[in-house]
Design a protein that fits this description.
With 172 residues, the protein is an alpha+beta fold. The protein is built from 3 helices and 7 strands. Strands 1-2-3-7-6-5-4 form a 7-stranded antiparallel β-sheet, covered by helices on one side. Strand 2 and strand 3 form a beta hairpin.
């Protein structure tokens, strides 16, 4: 790690001399806020899930610009983790649970089911349900991968929700 104060060109020339003109990836610090990177709290959450539940969880990949992890919980006794993302004044809940198929993630479904379909991602069938919630739509995606059960649930535009599901990151 190198920290420099002053003109960036001196550091660049120095770095090029060290690497003998080899190809390098350069990141412009002025554009860093526009570069896609995973939030530090999100990295910590997934690391804790791995350490405390013993699984490498499927991750949400590409998310809408203003969607960020607001909090997460891990329940080792129930072998369950929940990540809560804030997006457009709504909460998107991502649940990860290791209970066997005989157990269930119970929840109240008060909205009206208006559509149910399946998409395939990483050779996984992902069940999508669309509910009418007053003047908005709530979407729920459910799937299992390597014995772990997942659910993504939230109020957002359908194309954005499907973008979340299509960009899930699976680890083999």
């Amino acid at each position: 790690s190198v920290t420099s104060v002053g003109s960036k060109s001196y550091l660049k020339i120095f770095w090029e001399k060290i690497h003998g003109g080899q190809a390098m990836e350069v990141m412009n610090v002025e554009d860093m806020d526009t570069q896609d990177s995973e939030d530090g709290e999100e990295v910590t959450a997934y690391r804790e899930i791995r350490e405390r539940l013993g699984v490498v969880a499927v991750r949400l990949g590409s998310k809408p610009k203003d969607m960020y992890l607001s909090e997460y919980t891990i329940d080792e006794e129930q072998k369950r983790a929940q990540l809560f993302y804030s997006y457009n004044d709504e909460i998107i809940r991502y649940s990860i649970y290791l209970n066997n198929q005989d157990s269930s993630l119970s929840q109240k479904e008060e909205d009206t089911l208006i559509d149910n379909f399946v998409i395939e991602n990483h050779q996984q069938n992902i069940d999508i349900k669309k509910y009418k919630k007053s003047n908005k739509y709530r979407l729920v995606a459910k799937f299992d991968y390597q014995g772990v059960y997942y659910q993504v649930k939230g109020v957002m535009e359908e194309d954005e929700f499907l973008g979340l599901i299509e960009n899930l990151i699976f680890f083999d």
